Amino acid sequence: MSSLKKQPERMCVACRQMKPKNQLVRIVNSADGVVVDLSGKLNGRGVYLCRCAECIHKALKSKGFVKQHGFSLETVEQQLEKLLEQ
Length: 86
Description:
About 30% of the residues lie in helices and about 30% in strands. It has three helices and five strands, in the order βββββααα. It has helices at about 55-60, 65-70, 75-85; strands at about 10, 20, 25-30, 35, 45-50. The strands form two sheets. It has a three-stranded antiparallel sheet, with helices on one face. Strands 1-2 form a two-stranded antiparallel sheet. It is globular, with a radius of gyration of 13 Å. The model has no long low-confidence stretch (mean pLDDT about 90).
C-alpha cells in the first residue's frame, strides 16, 4: 500500500485552470477586509489566483470579478505585486 497523500486542487479565477492548491495564492474577503492569505486558513470567502503576472493582472482589470465575487482586489494590489517579485 502506498501512502501518497492526495493534493487538493483549486481553480484559478482568472485562467479557470485547475491547479494544486500550493501553486495558487488565496485572497480572502473577511471581516477585516480583503487580505492575501498565505497560510490558506483564514476565515472568510476566498478565491484563488495563479502566482503568475498574467493571471493577477487579468483579475485586477476584470470588472466582472467584482460582480462575481463581491469584492475588489485594489486593496491587495501591492501585496500581489510583491508576490510576483519573489
